[in-house]
Design goal:
This protein has helices at residues 17-23, 35-42, 50-58, 62-77. With 78 residues, it is an all-alpha fold. The protein has one domain (17-77). It is elongated, with a radius of gyration of 15 Å.
């Protein structure tokens, strides 16, 4: 589950992009596995710029990466 987020915009192509950073807070409480679908639902249009949406949706892969790292660590310890 996403417990906290702080989106800090830097170099952005459109004037709406910095405003979208504040919208990232709407994702707090979302299970990471659900991020791909929930970002599209909760951050439509200018509420979530393309780059922000891509970064947030990529968080859906964190549970699989974590499982892989745990498995690899266990195999290395065996």
């Amino acid at each position: 589950m996403l417990l906290a987020i702080n989106a800090e915009p830097h170099v952005l192509p459109y004037r709406e992009c910095p405003l979208a950073a504040a919208s990232a807070q709407h994702m707090v409480g979302t299970p990471l596995a659900d991020m791909r679908e929930e970002v599209l639902t909760r951050l439509p249009g200018v509420a979530g710029c393309t780059h922000l949406n891509d970064a947030l949706r990529a968080l859906a892969e964190v549970p699989a990466l974590t499982r892989h790292l745990i498995d690899a660590t266990r195999e290395g310890a065996a």
